[in-house]
């Protein structure tokens, strides 16, 4: 699958769907690895916009040509940027500037943008980092990059901790309802 | 019992202000065109007292407008009719400083600069530096996700907050930390403009002071050359601590005010600050000077006093421009840097069209523009003209791929402009997020996110690929 319209169609038609590698034969699956490539990259902006299936290795190759690098820790070059987005925490979110998503109703939406500073509307592009494919399908994202010399000092961070408060859990559940009211993403 | 009396009973003497004359000091924030007196102002000193205020407002369904120092520029702290202003300016304790971990735990009413002053003896400071840093509070900074002139290298408020404690309108406490697993709720709270909760404690990151900071000032004969220099510096792999640009009118106004030694014959001025270890600063300086060889004037700060004087001109640009006209309207659009010169040309065309002068100061490094539109509110119709001019600038920012606000927030000022940047479905998501945190809509209601019918009536609805997002909505 390679187009937004196809993803939208599939989400609208599916009762339940899993994003990422196939989990079981009975469950509809979206594999994003074919939806890859650079959408926009101007080195002087220190911003890159990518389709979610782009692998870390592919991104690093292109950045290297311009003496630039990612600002967050990665240890798996085969991983897609979308998978990293879905499983990361605040240190990855620091770099995020904007995101394009398809919600559980199949609607295409954009939050944030391609600029370093943007405080218009709630910060949904950072909110959805760590959403594990359970709120929306991430199709495209923009993030900040840096010259190689300035980006070198990021290291593996301690694993994120579960926030144990009941209020946190209830807010998380209600936020899922906004993006995926029919519970399509499992 | 009236809400004011209930508040007076619940809080210590002198903590509640009401009555038309007494509340006047709170009738506006930094966006002083809009004024509204609140029903009452509550100034709690502790989290328990904040809870008491929220409880009374919840029971009486009274809207709450949380306020720090009131320096915001978009009307985030402008009172609403019949509201209680929840002023946190008395919560000024720095609770702890951890030098080793480079963290400080502070109450929301602590001033931005006071944090840096308190940790200066350890060689540390709090990096985000909005121009109002002498007065603005850290709670307000988190609510607005404030920026400043050093964001390119050191980030916005969201990048410098480690954790917060907040209260929901229900009075429940929530602790959010950067180390939390799952959704980015802490990032969501940054820039939420007082609509989702009341922030009662903030753990901020502290940054080690650089060994050396040098400021390069370069004057250019054309704006385009100056804009090109910005791109070339970044492309060369330099990340300046600050990269600021001013146009001729802004240079003249600032020089007359601050006497910083800015070149009056230049069409555009670039301020490029390099900081870090001595060796790296020197290497970057050499590279930067090569890139800036085409400048008509060039000066490098020789010492701290000179560096601060060169900054003083830029940092006092707003008051300096303020002396040239009875009123000015400060815009806050952001754009991809490669469009700098083109957008400036567009702003100058609009200035001709509206017959209003404009001075331009930019955080060029991160594409954040602050055009200052000069006008006279005493002249009939001139406010409307200035606002129409501003709206045209913001529409142009969005058209080239930017945003309507980089660091000042939406507040009440940019509600209409929100309809240009976001589709109806996206705006609906914002409303739903608000409802998750504050189902009764008592926290700063009506700010930051426009009602959809407002967008439809304005005809400003975001149009994607020529299709209106909600064709079923009536357009007026």
Helix content of chain B: 25-40%
Q: Taking strands numbered 1, 2, ... along the chain, how are they ordered across the largest sheet of chain A?
A: 3-4-8-6-7
Please state the average pLDDT score of chain A.
Answer: 94
Largest sheet of chain A: 5 strands, antiparallel
Put simply, the count of helices of chain A is 7
Cα-based radius of gyration of chain B, to the nearest Å: 23 Å
**How many helical stretches of chain B?**
16
Estimated helix fraction of chain A: 25-40%
Order of helices and strands of chain A: HEEEEHEHHEEHEEHH
Largest sheet, spatial ordering of strands of chain B: 15-12-14-13-17-18-16
Looking at how many chains there are and whether they match, the oligomeric state comes to: heterodimer
Q: Characterize the main sheet of chain B.
A: 7 strands, antiparallel
Describe it for me?
- The complex is a heterodimer of chains A (186) and B (476).
- Chain A has helices at 4-13, 56-65, 81-87, 90-93, 124-127, 148-151, 166-179, and strands at residues 17-19, 28-30, 38-42, 47-51, 68-69, 96-102, 108-112, 137-144, 146-147.
- With 186 residues, chain A is of the alpha+beta class.
- In chain A, the strands form 3 sheets. In chain A, strands 3-4-8-6-7 form a 5-stranded antiparallel sheet. A two-stranded parallel sheet of chain A has the order 1-2.
- In chain A, strand 6 and strand 7 form a beta hairpin.
- The mean pLDDT of chain A is 94.
- Chain B has helices at residues 3-10, 47-59, 112-119, 138-144, 151-154, 185-189, 223-235, 248-258, 278-291, 304-315, 317-322, 340-354, 382-399, 415-421, 424-437, 452-458, and strands at 16-18, 40-42, 64-67, 84-87, 94-98, 103-106, 124-125, 161-167, 173-177, 198-205, 207-208, 212-220, 242-247, 268-276, 297-300, 327-330, 358-363, 368-375.
- The two termini of chain B are 44 Å apart.
- Chains A and B meet through helix 4, strand 7, helix 5, strand 9 and helix 6 of A and helix 5, strand 9, helix 6, helix 7 and helix 14 of B.
